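Q: Here's a chain of 352 amino acids. Please give me its 3D structure as tokens.
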Amino acid sequence: MAGLFYGLIDQTREFLHLPDAPVPSVGEYLKREISQHAAGWTEDEETRKLKLAILNSFFNVECCVSGTHSMDLVALAPFGEYTVLPGLDCTFPGGYQGLTNRIMASLPEDVVVFNKPVKTIHWNGSFREASSPGETCPVLVECEDGGCFPAHHVIVTVPLGFLKECLDTFFEPPLPTQKAEAIRKIGFGTNNKIFLEFEEPFWEPDCQFIQVVWEDTSPLQDGASELQHVWFKKLIGFLVLPSFESAHVLCGFIAGLESEFMETLSDEEVLLSLTQVLRRVTGPVCRGSHTSGVLLHHTRGSAVWLEGGRPAHRSVGHPSAAARAPALSPAPSIPSWALPLLCRGRLPPSFL
């Protein structure tokens, strides 16, 4: 099923330079192709349903990768524009601040100005530089306090939400229609990372990823259940993070409306639901107990998805402990052994 799904993902690149895509969205294309493949399956009904459930789990993975609630919201035609940058992922000790500190160290002192909110960026003009008589610059950055900074080039890194809200007033003259339309059509969704810390690992030493497959799901059917009963089914699984000192941590990923619903729950409700999920999907194969001293760390971030594209792609190639689980509803109370600790914070758009 992984070969089928990611083979179809690769096929989406065929529509990159065509004038018309066969269907508007990636989701519609994938479901159309899967439906045709499923019509030729000769296995028994139970096996066919399990195949569809596994494919549905890959849809959830792509929702996290593309930062969207549904792949039906991601346009097919430009989907293949994205390419993975070469090299390994890096983790900076102490966070991304270490990178900016390093860059700042190479700059002369007092060249970075803080607490200067920008009102308008005037571009495509001719502005005089006070420190260099006779020299003109094509860009002028006007601040809210009246200060101005002429420049030959300006790199704008404001958030997408700010661009959408202030597009008509932030640039003078307005941006070209093509760029303005691109900003209006770009969307972004909610992704959450959930870090579960355990006193001892219950997973095997060589396990890198625990993928959850729900038997009663299918990408060819729209689920109509209320979110409070099924939100955790959008979890793509749990990544086993490298052990650090005595910490044993699983990182779960969830996107879309289910991710937003999770943010409305209390620490205890989230912790209990996820602990129950892990109990059900790993109970027969786990080593030791995973019901003691669980700490929950929860961070949120917005990832950008393009009406014509996607921000990232990673194939699922980790050794995994795949497990099947029936439907599960959260219990109303939290047991005494659970010790929740919730840490909320914004993540940058590149969330994986």
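Q: Can you summarize the key feature?
A: The radius of gyration is 24 Å.
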